[in-house]
DNA sequence: GCTATTCGTGCAATCGATTGCACTTAGGCC
DNA sequence: GGCCTAAGTGCAATCGATTGCACGAATAGC
């Protein structure tokens, strides 16, 4: 007997029912706050005690099968090791957990096929909804989901064309603040190290950059990168510094990683930041203040974006919000040591 | 009809069976590689085609209920925003995904109650096993699991007293290498900024530190910290530098975060690293090379530790390994700019 | 040519919880 | 005191897939 209980941890509703001398239905109703009222107080109390004594724990899988709710939501991100995502995930978690939901996080590495596979796997697991932070999702899958009525919220990226709710930071305002700051420092020739153009953030930031430069009569060149990575940023600046003369005095990077790549390139080319070239990042990811030099960047409220995305998703699932809301969270320019007056 | 299919994405085994004019059992067998042989080739082929045409996707929840396997494993970590954990999680994922498993990651923030709640929630979700990276788990819960036969693997921490398989880095060797390096640089008075003593890593590292110092006849003082955090590290060094004279010429931190805290404290006290004080971290977390100065630290193979932990867990689940294996992965000292010859 | 296998498939139970419906028992009402 | 209503439980179906068992047909063996 002891052996049996050691092997088979499972105590089911039926076990509790038998012990209490009632039907499993009554146990179910007693243990569910929403239906507890249907059971006589005295009975409910007794059942709860027995359930506790027996160490009953509900089987969420069985419940989910019946109720068609898994209380699980899928979170699709490119790469957890990119420091902006952990805060988003934790923000999501912080909203979900107290409400009985759990998150299942998957990494796509920006690969569309992997993404399709992972999303399918999440759907097979009957997730109640999806929070998607990947850029490469113009295609088939998400639009299919929209048709099928799958609940999706975008975070940090917008869905191109598909009217899903989305939570983003105010990238336009961020870029404008950066340009304003650089102009005040006397910069007139600025390079934009743009993020991938198939991500909404990359696109919006570079568009804003161009229009701001035009508006202010600045020389604003844009270089596109494949990925938001240190390597891409470094390679892009390397390419410029290796051949021909540098004309820009400041670099506006699409994100902090690209900016860090710029740091590396400048250093290997004997250029000092900010003395020779000013560099500005975007996101204010962890540790940017500890870089050499401390990085001037735009703070995006990633944790809050996660919270907001989770909130939007649950209200969609509960059928409260049906309109595809777009939430834009404010950003702020963080002045540190990587920008200086133009020579 | 179109509306119905739009609303109810679900195509079940029964739907496929009806379309194919066979019993659901036959469809099930056809679609499962392991049982496909039981079905006539021709029939299986036809069924597969119909399943594909109808867009059938298996319901993992229903399957799990019947087979008592969720193909999901729980990953318990303190805090995803601590940069050492994302690589571990990705390592776990990389091993799990190709084998049909998914990971469900939860953050405990080092809080024991939260941990209990989250682990219970994971168990209710019928996870097939647990990978645990939290330190505060001496107690009740995990030992209960051991009795109940729940599959658990520890990663980055060892379970105190409970014989679960564990994957760790060779912290002892790492500390020894650090001391060796500092001795070569002429340091004889070294401070150890130790991690929490209720974590196996914190304990092992500080023990090794003390024994190495004794063995080599060095002055080695140890200061304990509550958490592996920047703030704790900074506060600890602040406390020393604020009152009284500093005697040490080098700091060996329990991890990179504590080391970074030391950086901050030294800077605010007008001390230069490494000129006045050498600092060594532990873990080689991302971006340590970009700190000012670039941090000398010990590289721990976090990604590989994740892979190994997942491997151990699955082999336990499959009943292959039953002995509680301890795997220790090698580390290496990464010399950068935060250590210099003692004055 | 007749029994003994083997093969292919269907039937029905099962996993654990939820829930619509029916039934019993009380209590309220006139 | 008889009838009606409501409260409290039980019964049984259900969610979707898996699987032991049984049955009929086809093949093999002698």
Descriptive tags:
homodimer, alpha/beta, 343 residues, 13 helices, Rossmann fold, 434 Repressor (Amino-terminal Domain), DNA-binding, 3 domains, 44% helix
The tally of helices of chain A reads 13
Structural domains of chain A: how many: 3
Q: What general outline of chain A do the C-alpha atoms trace?
A: elongated
Number of distinct beta strands of chain A: 12
Outline the low-pLDDT stretches of chain A.
1-7
Helix-strand pattern of chain A: HHHHHEHEHEHEEHEHEHEHEEHEE
Mean pLDDT of chain A: 91
What level of helicity do the residues of chain A show? 40-55%
Give me the CATH superfamily of the largest domain in chain A.
Answer: Response regulator
Sheet/helix structural class of chain A: alpha/beta
**Largest protein interface, residues of each chain:** A-B, 50 and 50 residues
Rg of chain A (CA only):
26 Å
Write the layout of secondary structure elements.
Two copies of one chain form a homodimer.
Chain A: H1 2-7, H2 13-20, H3 24-31, H4 41-54, H5 60-67, E1 72-77, H6 85-96, E2 102-107, H7 112-124, E3 129-132, H8 140-148, E4 152-155, E5 166-169, H9 171-184, E6 189-194, H10 200-216, E7 219-224, H11 230-242, E8 250-253, H12 256-268, E9 278-280, E10 297-299, H13 302-317, E11 326-329, E12 332-334
Parallel strand pairs in A: 1-2, 1-3, 3-4, 4-5, 5-11, 6-7, 6-8, 8-9
Antiparallel strand pairs in A: 10-12
Helix pairs in contact in A: 2-3, 2-4, 3-4, 6-13, 9-10, 11-12
The first copy, chain A, binds a DNA duplex (30 and 30 nucleotides) through residues 10, 12-14, 22-29, 32, 35, 38-40, 43, 58-59, 61-68.
């Amino acid at each position: 007997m002891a052996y049996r209980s050691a092997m088979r941890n499972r105590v089911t509703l039926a076990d509790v029912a038998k012990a209490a001398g009632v039907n499993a239905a009554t146990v179910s109703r007693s243990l569910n706050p929403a239906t507890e009222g249907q059971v006589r107080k005295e009975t409910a109390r007794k059942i709860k005690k027995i359930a506790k004594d027996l160490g009953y724990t509900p089987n969420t899988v069985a419940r989910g099968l019946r109720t068609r709710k898994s209380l699980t939501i899928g979170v699709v991100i490119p790469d957890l090791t990119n420091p902006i995502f952990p805060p988003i995930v934790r923000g999501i978690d912080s909203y979900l957990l107290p409400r009985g939901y759990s998150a299942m996080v998957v990494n796509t590495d920006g690969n569309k096929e992997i993404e399709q596979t992972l999303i399918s796997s999440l759907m097979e697991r009957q997730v109640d909804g999806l929070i998607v932070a990947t850029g490469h999702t113009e295609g088939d899958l998400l639009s299919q989901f929209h048709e099928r009525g799958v609940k999706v919220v975008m975070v940090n990226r917008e869905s191109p064309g598909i009217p899903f709710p989305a939570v983003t930071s105010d990238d336009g305002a961020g870029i404008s603040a950066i340009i304003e700051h650089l102009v005040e420092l006397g910069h007139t020739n600025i390079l934009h190290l743009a993020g991938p153009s198939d991500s909404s953030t990359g696109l919006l930031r570079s568009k804003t950059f161009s229009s701001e430069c035009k508006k202010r009569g600045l020389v604003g060149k844009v270089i596109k990168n494949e990925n938001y990575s240190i390597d891409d940023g470094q390679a892009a600046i390397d390419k410029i510094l290796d051949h021909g003369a540098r004309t820009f005095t400041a670099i506006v990077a699409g994100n902090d990683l690209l900016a860090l790549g710029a740091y590396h390139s400048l250093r290997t080319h004997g250029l000092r930041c900010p003395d020779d070239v000013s560099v500005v990042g975007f996101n204010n990811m962890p540790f940017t203040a500890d870089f050499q030099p401390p990085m001037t960047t735009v703070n995006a409220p990633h944790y809050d974006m996660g919270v907001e995305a989770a909130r939007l998703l649950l209200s969609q699932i509960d059928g409260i919000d049906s309109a595809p809301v777009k939430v834009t969270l404010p950003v702020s320019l963080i002045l540190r040591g990587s920008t200086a007056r133009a020579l």
